[in-house]
Specification:
Strand 2, helix 3 and strand 3 (74-78) form a beta-alpha-beta unit. By secondary structure, this protein is α/β, with parallel strands linked by helices. It contains five helices and five strands, in the order αβαβαβαβαβ. It has helices spanning 12-15, 34-45, 60-64, 86-98, 121-142, and strands spanning 25-28, 49-54, 74-78, 103-106, 156-159. It has a five-stranded parallel beta sheet with strand order 3-2-1-4-5, sandwiched between helices.
Length: 174
């Protein structure tokens, strides 16, 4: 097994087979910038078609230009994973465009710092709907489309967390 991302400094693009993921379709939630954008570039370098997710309409203009250099087919899709319809919308866009889905990467997250006494239910719910319910609904929507082992290797679900999961910040909401 080879790592796409790791704490260890490696250059996976240089060492990976350039077409290791040819014919695969990957949906990367939270991929308009940061770690998600790096994952998109790596999946594309390995031959996967990618669905790039941005959460809000005002991010659309920042999404399209950087991706013109990708080596594989791609689409950018608006979808707010904190909503009940956002995750299934992203999955359906992938299937509509590419006819299938092989890999989902749950990377979107909402980082909120607040004291318990300053946290209201709305703030708590905003964190939970993005960080917990969103990936759950994404997996639920994707499962019918992911190939099984008997269909040629099986699909992949990759859940990304930050160092906050093992080294939490003071006042960090879940």
């Amino acid at each position: 097994m080879e790592a796409i991302a790791s704490r260890k400094r490696i250059n996976p693009s240089k060492d990976a087979a350039p077409n290791a993921l040819a014919g695969k379709v990957a949906l990367v939630m939270g991929s308009s910038s940061g770690i998600g954008a790096a994952i998109v570039r790596e999946l594309s370098a390995r031959g996967a078609s990618v669905v790039i997710n941005y959460g809000w309409p005002d991010l659309e203009r920042t999404v399209n230009d950087p991706w013109k250099s990708l080596k594989s087919p791609w689409i950018a899709v608006e979808g707010d994973i904190s909503t009940t319809s956002g995750p299934s919308h992203l999955v359906q866009a992938a299937v509509d465009k590419f006819g299938k889905l092989d890999i989902i990467v749950n990377n979107a997250a909402k980082a909120t710092l607040a004291k318990v006494e300053d946290t209201n239910v709305d703030l708590w719910d905003a964190s939970m709907t993005t960080n917990v319910r969103g990936p759950f609904l994404e997996c639920q929507a994707a499962l019918p489309h992911l190939p099984t082992k008997s269909e040629g290797g099986g699909g992949r679900i990759i859940n990304i967390t930050s160092a906050v999961s093992t080294d939490p910040e003071v006042q960090q909401l879940a």
